[in-house]
Amino acid sequence: MRELAVYIHIPFCDHKCIYCDFYSVTTLRNKTRFFEALKKEIDFYARKLANSYSVSTIFFGGGTPSLMEPHLIGEIIEYLNKKFNFNSPLEITLETNPGTVNPNKLKAFKKAGINRLSVGVQSFDDDDLKFLTRIHDSRTAVRTVKKAADAGFENLSVDLIFNLPNQTIKKWQKNLEIATALPVKHISAYSLIVESGTALKALINKGKVQIASTDYDAKLYLQTIEYLTNKGFAQYEVSNFAKKGFECRHNLFYWRYKDYLGLGPSAHSFIEGKRWLNYSNLTKYVEELSSNFNAIKSSETLTEKEMLEEFVMLSLRSEGLDLNLLSGKFGEDWKANNKGLLKKLEENNFARVEKNKIKLTPKGYALCDEILLNFKF
Ligand code: SF4
């Protein structure tokens, strides 16, 4: 049996945050229809995959999955378990927003089978949170993490965003200090990305918001790596840091180029070199599931060259590029074609080669996208 990671997109939010381009709706009107459709989608893929795949991780993302009643999430876990074999240990993550849970609800999520929480804190500074139009304040964020630990969640992660407008080095440092003083085992720290079509993008276009330079962004990023590494959070991907043994197993499926199944509107899947994407519209998703038993909007089969590019990119952005694995999958050409560049990266301290594995240094991670553009495929 091959291992499978399952992502489930819960497309409901309290309101739309100004920077967000994830698919979600701000009404719960179609919640029941959504969960019915989701079960049909599980049926569809169980018929195709359950004989050859067993599930190792489940990730409830969104949207705001923690807005849902725990029994609804529990029913989906049970339903999946009826249709697929589950591996042990099984990691089941729930993205959880402060302001949507209380101690009883957290306990109920635990009882429903969730064993990892990814808490969408984004910042411990109230001005930042107002700017991001989040529903919570800093106190609620701290309390949510502590209550989650009290409810028995050991595998706890927080998300933070840096390079927000007016975010000084000192202010960002304070965020890192608060996060690491909490009982968390994993921290995701992302630079603010201005996505097109968002309210933030419109504000920037009108000149009402200014974003700091890329140099300043890189400075905050290097500060993050240094601080978190010193606090015992090892960097295992461009934006992700974990205490030993608490790396997100679900995300490792993506970065190790392994198979994953995405369910729900806007979810992506990647299985045996084929990638597909669901409709990013709840009504369409529900209709398609009723008539076609799936909600696939488009699909593509990757060429050998595309797979090689993605494998190199994902490996370098995360745990490093295993040259033996690369040769086994794609032959020797890439190594030969990029020998000169790899040597230069090592000489300039952008990468290290250890045990036949190329790993970016913090300086290399900061310039990861530029470095990737220079490889020959
Ligand atoms: S809560 Fe999360 S998913 Fe929902 S709008 Fe805000 S950032 Fe986007």
Fold topology:
Layout: E1 2-10, H1 31-49, E2 53-62, H2 70-83, E3 85-96, H3 103-112, E4 116-122, H4 126-131, H5 138-150, E5 155-162, H6 169-181, E6 186-191, H7 199-205, H8 214-230, E7 234-237, E8 240-242, H9 249-255, E9 260-263, E10 268-271, E11 274-278, H10 282-292, E12 296-301, H11 304-317, E13 321-322, H12 323-330, H13 333-337, H14 339-347, E14 351-354, E15 357-360, H15 362-366, H16 368-373
Parallel strand pairs: 1-2, 1-9, 2-3, 3-4, 4-5, 5-6
Antiparallel strand pairs: 6-8, 7-8, 10-11, 11-12, 13-15, 14-15
Helix pairs in contact: 1-2, 1-10, 2-3, 6-8
User: What percent of the residues sit in helical stretches (DSSP H or I)?
Assistant: 40-55%
Bound molecules: iron/sulfur cluster
- Name of the CATH homologous superfamily of the largest domain: Aldolase class I
Distance between the termini: 32 Å
| DSSP summary, beta strand count | 15
Report on the biggest sheet.
9 strands, mixed
Low-confidence stretches: none
Tally of structural domains: 2
Total count of helical runs of at least 4 residues: 16
The strands making up the biggest β-sheet line up spatially as 7-8-6-5-4-3-2-1-9
Shape designation: globular
CATH topology of the largest domain: TIM Barrel
Mean pLDDT: 96
Radius of gyration using CA atoms only: 21 Å
CATH class of the largest domain: Alpha Beta
Task: Please state roughly what percent of the residues sit in beta strands, choosing from under 5%, 5-15%, 15-25%, 25-35%, 35-45% or over 45%.
Answer: 15-25%
* CATH architecture annotation name of the largest domain: Alpha-Beta Barrel
Secondary-structure-derived class: alpha/beta
